[in-house]
TrEMBL record:
InterPro entries, per the entry: ABC2_TM (IPR013525), ABC2_TM_bact-type (IPR047817), ABC_2_transport (IPR000412), T7SS_ABC-Transporter (IPR051328)
Keywords of this entry: Antibiotic resistance, Cell membrane, Membrane, Transmembrane, Transmembrane helix, Transport
GO CC entries: ATP-binding cassette (ABC) transporter complex
Taxonomic lineage: Bacteria, Bacillati, Actinomycetota, Actinomycetes, Pseudonocardiales
Molecular-function GO term, any one: ABC-type transporter activity
Family note: Belongs to the ABC-2 integral membrane protein family.
Species assigned in the record: Kutzneria buriramensis
Protein name: Transport permease protein
Amino acid sequence: MSTLAVRPRWPLALCVEAAAAAGRRLRHLRRAPGRFLGITLNPLVSMLILGYLFQHSITVPGAGSYQEYLFAGAAAQVGLAGIGPSAIAVAGDRDRGLVDRLRSLPIDRGAVLIGHTLADAVVGVLGLAVVTAFGLLIGWRPHGDPLSTVAAFALLALFGYVMSWVGVLLGMTSRNAESISALAPLVTVVLPFLSNAFLSSASLPGWLTPIADWNPVSAVSSACRALWANPSGTATSFAGTHPGVVLAAWLGPLLVVSAGLSLRRYRATG
């Protein structure tokens, strides 16, 4: 292995290399717009079916607009939907031998994975913008102050970034892209239904309520609803009334573990 490939990198050099890797990924996404469609499709379908077609059939405990309740859950779905594309892109690079080719270059191999996640963060923000536009179209409105509104979107962007690292770890540990294609949609669809994204956790079967309350999707949805002053349903448990604490307990360890294991495995691959 080249000594240039393993020497310590200056932070500026690492940033430049990560930006180059992100640009490469974004160029690939430009030639494959279907991946962007996959990120936005599930949230848009959820808002269309639940928030528009069934809007008069679903009520929010404690009153309020269901479209405004639903939007936070659909926006959180954007972050979950990014897991699959991140995993498939990383697995594709690994299977095509790109990792071996990068070993001969004087770059930090971690920059490649960081670049993947930065590109996915850009795509996630664009997807969130599309979902927000549709949410406004069907009746969602933020009622908080501008700073709180922006803070909620920043929280969603952070959630999406952490999920992209989860996707990277999945891509580095999976055996093939077919297994990722089967698993990722289940996460995007099932996890929100085991949370308060679409329905109040109090309306779920009793044994599911604690699971929904501690679900990170519930935490990010509830935190965004509070910041936007949207209807939030009813919650009596610690997790339900302290979504910020639950979110911090999930996102911090998830980011550290998924990024750490992904970088370690990437550097050992080959």
